[in-house]
Amino acid sequence: MTNTNHFVYKNSQNEMTDEDMSLLFLIPLVQMAWAHGAISPREKQVIFDAAREDGIDHRSSLNDTLDRWLVYQPSQQFYNECLGLIKSTLQTMTVQERGTKRDKIFERCRAVAASAGSKSLMDVNHYVSQEERELLTELEHLVG
Hints:
Number of helices: 7
Low-confidence stretches: 1-6
Number of strands: 0
Radius of gyration: 14 Å
Order of helices and strands: HHHHHHH
Largest sheet: none
Number of domains: 1
Shape: globular
């Protein structure tokens, strides 16, 4: 990804790699983190933990791109384009794979939302703001 507002990673056959897909599926978390207009250190940590879990090495260019999105807020157009890519990618999966991936995205989005205002990730509903709840509902409709 050469800039903040376009998702352009492709391999030589003009297809997204597995690593690119891992990064793509983190974009809803980035969007959730920006729901208040600023990102807390805890939100960043939750997102980077998800990236590590998905195999994005902290020394990789993908990590640098993710970090850039957490410093410079991507545009709404960027989010819309990426959510469209996510939705079309989910359509190619089996029903079980799609359900598992969607559940993982939404669980992680709730964890990001909860991390901004709480001291514990255990109570995800109590600390989720109205803006975050609205965004989660919007994401569920767009990706669901």
